[in-house]
């Protein structure tokens, strides 16, 4: 298979009930995009038939590849998929929440804006609790990291391969999206946010609850502390 122009990484976690429909919708929509592609399904830590379903899809669609990880973790799956990607334009997204139309929209924004990171800015949430939780988290990240973005966790995220610092992310958990934005800010990568208004899940249930939300708030603070360590070492006066 020739080298694809676009690589799309889709972490898959306990999505056997809907991942087949999602991939079929993606393939149908992406067929109208005039660029070669690969779709990398990273099945991570799943306890259902997700791997079996994804392997069947790879047999049916030449552009689909499957990678399996016994360990779970959003960040781990994203990193694994990106490490295997061969395209010039790299993308990862939450397949349970991203419609085929929104995926194509963000990819086309990237193609016509080379040298720019394109990320989704979700405008709708399922309920007021998720809206409030998201607002607090985004405000925290804006304050800690001096970010101008309004949806830290919004996907799809698309970037050119030459932005190679985004290929050395370290987080294995949900904090990888915050780290992604911090790296863009630090390296001066220009970012364009595309408003996305869809809020429907394709299937499954959301994994974010009060406990995981608090964990993310605390994790963002810890990530900030970690980013400050190099500056502290530089500023620390030498002793004779």
The gist of it:
The chain has 240 residues and is α/β, with parallel strands linked by helices.
- Annotated CATH homologous superfamily: Spore Coat Polysaccharide Biosynthesis Protein SpsA, Chain A
The biggest beta sheet is recorded as: 7 strands, mixed
CATH topology: Spore Coat Polysaccharide Biosynthesis Protein SpsA, Chain A
For the residues shown, what is the average pLDDT? Answer: 88
Distinctive features:
7 helices, 7 strands, single chain, alpha/beta, Spore Coat Polysaccharide Biosynthesis Protein SpsA, Chain A, 43% helix, 7-stranded mixed β-sheet, 17% strand, 240 residues
Walk me through the structure:
- With 240 residues, the protein is α/β, with parallel strands linked by helices.
- It has a single domain (6-230), classed as Spore Coat Polysaccharide Biosynthesis Protein SpsA, Chain A.
- Helix content is 43%, strand content 17%.
- The protein has helices spanning 19-30, 50-60, 74-84, 100-112, 128-145, 176-187, 210-235, and strands at residues 6-12, 37-44, 64-69, 89-92, 117-122, 157-160, 191-196.
- Strand 1 (6-12), helix 1 and strand 2 (37-44) form a beta-alpha-beta unit.
- Helix 1 (19-30) crosses helix 4 and helix 5 runs parallel beside helix 7 (210-235).
- The protein starts with 5 loop residues before the first strand and ends in a 5-residue tail after the last helix.
- The model has no long low-confidence stretch (mean pLDDT 88).
